[in-house]
Amino acid sequence: MQATVKWVDGVQFLAESGSGHSVVIDGPEDHGGRNMGVRPMEMLLLGVGGCATFDVLTILKKSRQAVVDCRCELQAERADAVPAVFTKIHLKFVVTGQKLKEAQVARAVELSATKYCSASIMMTGAGVEVSHSYEVIEQV
């Protein structure tokens, strides 16, 4: 896996993944930025959410659950001192579908947390308290 981060101006950077996708990283205005992109730590949090949501959806599809929507709501806390690392991350999955089996959703979240999500497992290994919850919404 490769990536490139190129300085643009001030505290703005253009990050490009090895697969050719780009994202703007920028700092807040009070740190010389123009607020034109995500912050680096936000990017890490988004990566955790994206990795875990990918896992949950894949597992639910393999178990033939009729998922019509899935989102991961993330809440994170950071240390007050430098380095301001993540200390806690909570992932709440909101899964909407038709006749979803709650046990299957719980299993998908658990498997993501303990076996498949490289990003959240890496955070746990670094001492971050990572927790998970879910909500199942029946589509009418």
Automatic annotation (TrEMBL):
Tree of life domain: Bacteria
Gene3D superfamilies: 2.20.25.10, 3.30.300.20
Pfam families reported in the protein's UniProt record: OsmC
SUPFAM superfamilies the UniProt entry points to: OsmC-like
UniProt cross-references to InterPro entries, sorted A to Z: KH_dom-like_a/b, OsmC/Ohr_fam, OsmC/Ohrsf
Record-given protein name: OsmC family protein
Natural source organism: Halioxenophilus aromaticivorans
